[in-house]
Amino acid sequence: MTLSRTDFRLAELFPPALAFPVGPSGLVLAAPAKLNLFLEVLRKRPDGYHDLESLLVAINLFDTLELQATTMAELRLQCDTPTLATGADNLVIRAAEALRKYVNRPDLGAVMSLKKRIPMQAGLGGGSSDAAATLVGLNEIWKLGLTRRELLAIAASTGSDVAFFLTLPAAWCTGRGEVVSSEESRRSFHFVLVCPPVGLRTAEVYQRLVVPAEPTAGAAVRAAFRAGDSESLGRALFNRLEEPAFALQPLVERIRRRLDRLGSLGAMMSGSGSALLALGRDQAHATQLAARFLATRPPDEPQSRVLVVRSLTP
Ligand code: C5P
Description:
Elements: H1 10-13, E1 19-22, E2 26-44, E3 50-70, E4 75-79, H2 91-102, E5 109-115, H3 126-141, H4 148-158, E6 170-174, E7 179-182, E8 190-195, H5 202-208, H6 219-227, H7 230-236, E9 238-239, H8 242-248, H9 250-260, E10 266-269, E11 276-280, H10 283-295, E12 305-310
Helix pairs in contact: 2-3, 2-4, 3-4, 5-8, 6-7, 8-9
């Protein structure tokens, strides 16, 4: 492959407001979480993955990743969350390794520091977003000049959701999630985000899934999103992974049922869970819903993390 320096434009790969230089060879990136507003599974594939259709939107909840290029041929990662391993399995390291391999430059080195704010095993895409930020950031500070197309291919090899985070702030995703087509809305949507104190493993959720004979169509959710019509969007929220996730973690179903009674425009689990969302008419309504959710918690329901978030706009 040939590297074309002229193709190299950070702003085309990542929203400029989410990346800042630190010194001559460093960069800080804000890696956003995502919500799935629609997720239908079409079929199980011979490779074990599932073909799906999903509407993904980035929200204003961010991990922070600082990258510094070094002269040593070493990838070093530190993280403020002790429960997250920082070795070869970490998606940041996997993305950096995949990038070095693609350009055949084992001599490249970086010191990387990750501050986790996005709950893990929550269906919010935190690890995938960190991986995408790593690809974009290292492409910049290592001056590789890879195109968006090349980064998308490396992203897909790192995880099913990583390509979405190179297509911010919203996309219709197909294939196993890595075939991304940009979506645009006229406005932000406001949500209550409930993160239960239990996680779900994506692979386990998919294992329990029963593929539907007749998939639900995503046309209504896409139209509502594009039009900025929150009432219609609330009615069109759909996630096929709820059933298997609820079977694995009854608390998630219990919280979903409680969210259903709050008076939101619609409530649902995000991705493979365990986080849930409830759509408000506007920020004030979402804040009111959050207060209502907190105030009506039964004493025997474990405490969840509750946030008011909005979808990012271009
Ligand atoms: O691609 P990623 O590593 O995020 O996927 C984690 C696991 O989730 C996969 O190993 C697979 O078991 C399951 N999965 C799937 N179909 C998808 C995405 C993920 O079965 N479209």
